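Title: Prediction job returns without error message
Component: structure pipeline
Severity: low
Priority: P3
Assignee: unassigned

Description:
Job completed but the reporter wants confirmation the result is attached to the right record. Sequence as submitted:
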Amino acid sequence: MRIPLNRSAQEPIYLQIRDRISHLITSGALQAGEQLPSIRALAESVQVNKLTVIEAYSVLEADGLVSAKQGAGYFVNNAMLSPERSSTLETDQEVVIPSKWGESFFDQYMDSLQAQLHPDVIDFTSGFPRPSGLEDLAKIARRAMTQVADVLFSYDFPQGQFTLRKQVAQMLAWKLGLEASADNLIITNGSKQALSLAFQYYLRAGDWVIVECPTYHGAIAILEKMGIKVIGIPMQNDGMNLELLHQYLRSHQPKLIYTVSTLHNPTGITTSQSHRRELISLAEKYNCPILEDNAYEGLNFEPAPAPLKVLDRSDLVTYIGTFSKSLMPGLRVGYMVSTGKHYQALVELKLLHDLHVSTVTQAIASEYIASGHYRRHLNHLRTINHQRHDRMLQAMEQHFPSSVRWTVPNGGLFIWVQLPNHTPMQIVGQEAAAQQVLIGRGKLFFPDGQGYPAFRLNFSQSLEDIDRGIAILGNILKQHLA
């Protein structure tokens, strides 16, 4: 295999190797199932260190182009070809300003935990991926414990361990083009704590905040407890309605815009680059900070546009990410990127919350990144999620009535299903639960607890559960929408 290298170029050698092999795969010069040269052979061929080849192969694996087989080497993956589908969502573009709040987030959360105790229940309500690809967890945890054993008897910095912050900064630059230093990063107890910190920093009781409608119900719950006044701007197929956003920025002068720009929860929508540029422009015009919640970053099947934070030139955007959705929720390791005058104030607020995130869980997350396991795990997760995403859409096309509409996300975990206005949602949910199928009721995701009839489906379940659960839901919907 011939790989020309420019050793004087700014691009690292391992990325040049990755780019060349990637081109050979996507052009068809390397076929599915074909074996790549061994690490030793390629290193000798292009006259580089073996570690450089290992790094290049690891990136190709994270890109989903190749897979490693124990003792055999690296092989080109089969292409993930999906039929062309597009979202069929058609929603009324009405702004929601709630006079009362919806159902309890606590009750919904506890119900979801109870469902986990019953393995025979098909739980489409979950907000997390199914456990998979974590066979090396015990070994990684042991290595992590060895590295931090001497500091377990003292407190750590509130902004988090420097090594992990540096790794996350490098990861954001590599994956998303988001240039940040370790001194812009705060490690948090999951992204939920990051949300709480940002809301407490930017908002006071009685302030106006803009959210997407529907939006993440955990964020709604925090805002409710804080006494914040919410403006719910309706979602379109390409994201928040920017015309209405402009109108309410002008009329209500909100103190913050909360948005999930990539793989939105609950709809799965990813906004375009032009949508993001216009949103940033509006925020700059009205000097309104943005809280960008990208909890599902890394789970996209195809490259997503650069985050809003990349476009931020005025320190208006605070960016939030987490390992809960891409690695494991039990670690409770999230992070936020803050620049300019906001960073120190957020660190001080973090200190008052809980001093710092667990030293052990930070070390485990750090070891996952350092060892390359995190990249490989993300690749594995994207591959199985893509298969299950396609399987659920296929089952919905087969079983759901023609009057039902839904989104077609480019990754993440969720498909948002919109039903006709006359659908008796409470009865549908009860009948599904009676047949051991749980669905995320749509009204939980609207600030007023109402909204149009809808539900959220998590497509990361097993293929068998997807087939059986969607067939059951389809039969129930046909009975009520005939």
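Comment from assignee: result matches the submitted record. The chain has a mean pLDDT of 89.
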